[in-house]
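Readers of this paper often ask what the protein records in our data store actually look like. This encoding replaces a full spatial description with a residue-level series of whole-number codes. For reference, a complete record is included directly beneath this paragraph.
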Amino acid sequence: MKYIFNFPDIGEGLEEGTIVEWLVKKGQKVEAGDLLVTMETDKVVAEIPSPKSGTISALFGKEGETIRVGDALVEIEIEGVAGEEAVKEVEKGSDLEAVKEEGAGVVGTLEIAGNSAVLSGSTEGISEIEAIKDTTKKTILATPVARAMAKDMGVDINQVQGTGPAGRVTKDDVLQHAKNSTKSTGTVSQNTPAAESKLVEVEPLSQMRKTIAKNMIRSKHNAAHMSLFDDVEISELDRVRKQYKERYTGEGIKLTYLAFIVKAVTYALKKHKALNSEMDTENDKMLYKKYYNIGL
């Protein structure tokens, strides 16, 4: 029989999760308890075990795609089970024993599909689901080194083709992408997306980051606001200002402390890009700006 295992509710109140990495492939034999997939939700990154022993006949969803709780996750072919035995197999539920582990993020047996999970030995349902084009935006998988290198080189990591495990972007991928881009930038107009990407770095929002953002917005509306004042020792700044003050006065320029403060703020924004960013919640993206507008 064919057994459909739906994406279980692995946390209270969760509605969806993102496929980070498939740990099995079509045609692979698994035992109950073997890990099937790594999923990222609003709260945790968890590995989902198989509820049954059998052969993987279909995987629903690609790495980086977001699926909702209750949607089909994998299809398992259980040999030697048919007819009434198939119905009993589903009613029996998971082959895993309910276990409560200390400090574990998932407690008890994972929720599985109901009676509708029994299919005949045909390919019913497979072609239809595989034919659906999921327009959900993918989460770019990349190593920390690759992300840091892409940032330093001004490369949009969302445009880099990953060759690492599960399609992860590696350091070599970033270098190769930058090399290929250099060859084709001679005819690129300043108004093209490539030119605009140099001013804004785009990163996809993970499920966890989206949840944090919602809670932060709610906190901003409910929590009391406050201002913090502190004293700073600026003897060295005062010395530098006095050193160049007369030179600029001769050119008709009044050198104030504010010019140094603006310069320092700009350097700080370059170092801490999150302070000069914008969250695009409609497209699930984080926009890190590489230009600095400071109003006085």
Notes: The longest strand covers residues 16-22.
